[in-house]
Amino acid sequence: MNRAVLLAVVGLVLIPRASAAQSLPENPDVFAERRDALMDRLPDGIFLAYSVWELKPWAFPGQAQHPTFYYLTGMERQIGGVLALDALNGEAILFAPGGVGGFMRSMGVAVQPGEQSAADLGLDAVRPWGELKPWLDARISESPELKLYVEGQVTGFPAVPELAPFAIPAGAFHAMLETQWPDVEVETAWREIAGLRAIKSAAEVETIRRAALTAMAGFTAGLVGIRPGRMQREVEAEIISACLAAGADGLSWWPWAHTGPAAVFPRTFEAFADYRHLNRRMQSGEVARIDVGCEVDHYHSDVGRTAPVSGSWTDGQRETWDLFVDAYRASFSVIRDGVTVDSVRETFQREVAARVPGLQTDMARQAAVIMQDDEQIPSWQIHGVGLSPAEDFGPVLRTGMVVAYEPMFTVDDVGFYLEDLLVITEDGFQNLTPGLPYSANAIEAAMAGR
After folding, report:
1. Which residues of the chain carry a pLDDT beneath 50?
2. Which of 183, 351, 406, 411 has its CB surrounded by the most CB atoms within 10 Å?
3. How far is it, in rounded angstroms, from Cα 304 to Cα 436?
4. Under a CB-based contact definition with an 8 Å cutoff, are residues 152 and 23 in contact?
5. Cα(432)–Cα(271) distance, rounded to whole angstroms?
6. Cα distances (Å, whole numbers) of residue 172 to 65, 68, 71, 110, 395
7. pTM for the full model?
8. Model pLDDT, residue 234
9. Which residues on neighbouring strands pair with residue 256, listed in sequence order?
10. What is the residue-wise DSSP string for 202-236?
11. CA–CA separation, 225 vs 335, rounded Å?
C-alpha cells in the first residue's frame, strides 16, 4: 500500500467524531446566517423549504434529510414540515406537524410548535402545521405582489396531460402552490440555493475532509480486492465495510466496483436503475472503475480510479492510463479561484496534444484523439460536493468550493476514469484525498499491497 495512503487511513482513528445525532442544531446561529443570506437574495417574496416526509425505507442505511431543509435549519430528524423564509418581514417560521402521534411521536421526529422550540432553533416562530395555509393567505392579502419561491422542480420525465407531477415531490410541491394560489407567481430559486451551498465554510470543509478520508479507506479496500473470478458485489461489500470502519456514518451511494463493459460510460450509470447494480464476475484483461463516496455528518465525498482487474495493465492500457494521468495532473496548474471549468479542460487537452509524438501504442494514440475532441468527452465533469454528492456551482471555480474533478472517456470499449476531491483556494487548491496512487506502476503496486 502507498505509504501516504496508509498514513491517511491509519490516521482516521484520530479524527474526532461528532457528537451523537441531535434533532435540534448545536449551533443555531450558523443556520440563521444562512437563512438571512438567502432572504437577502430573494427580497421580494417567501421561500418555502420542505423537510423529508417519511421514515427511511428499510433498505437504506440511514435517514437522509432534504439537503436544503437541513442546510437552512440543521434539523436532521424532522419528519414533515415547511420552513417559510419571509424576506419582506424578515421572519423565519417553521410550520411543524406537531400533532403526529403514536410510534412517530415517540421517536421525536417532529419538533413541537411553541416558543421553546423557536428559541432552540433560532427561528422567529414554530407554528402548528395547520396554520400554514391561513398564514400564507394573510401574507398574500397584505402583499399582493409578493412571490413564492421553491428550490426547483425535478425534471427528466414528460408531464402527464392534465395531471400534476405527482410522482416527483419537488414538482408536486410546486404544482400545489400554483394550484392553491393561482394569482401568485411561483418561481424556482435553485440558482440562489446552489450559490449559497457551493461556498463552504471552514467547518463544512473539515467535515467533508473527514468524509473524504473514509472514502479513501473504502477505495483502498476496493483496489486490493479487485481480481479475476470475483463478483463485483463482493468487492463493493468490502468497500462499504472499510468506509464504516474508518468512521463513515453511511454511504453517498452504493459503491461502484464496475468492470469490463460495466465500467464504460454511460453504461456504468445504469447501475442506478439495475436491481443487481450491474453485478458480474471480473475477468482478466478488463479494467475496473472503483468509485467511492462516504458520508460523515450529512456531508459527502467522491473519489476513485481505474485499475486493471488482473493487477497488471496491458501495454495499451498502461500507456493510455499514464497519458490520462499526466494530462490530469498538468491541469492542476490552473485550478484556483476565478478559473473556468473550460480552462481546466483546455489545459488538460493541451497536455495530451503535447505528448502525442511520443506515444507508442494504438490505444494511446486513439485515446489522445478522443481526449482532444469535446464531442467525444461528453462525460467531462467537475461537480460540487457537499450535502449532496453532486451539486451545482456554475462555470467558474471560487474559493471555498469543494469539487470532484473526474474526467472520463472510452477507447476501444475500455472505460477510463480518475477522480480527486479538491477544495478551491485563492491561489490553488487543497487535495482532500491525498496520497492515492496515480501512475500505472503505482496502481499496480497498491493492488499488490505494496
Report:
1. 1-22
2. 411
3. 9
4. no
5. 26
6. 18, 17, 21, 22, 30
7. 0.90
8. 97
9. 291
10. HHHHHHHHHHHHHHHHHHHHHHHH--TT-BHHHHH
11. 33
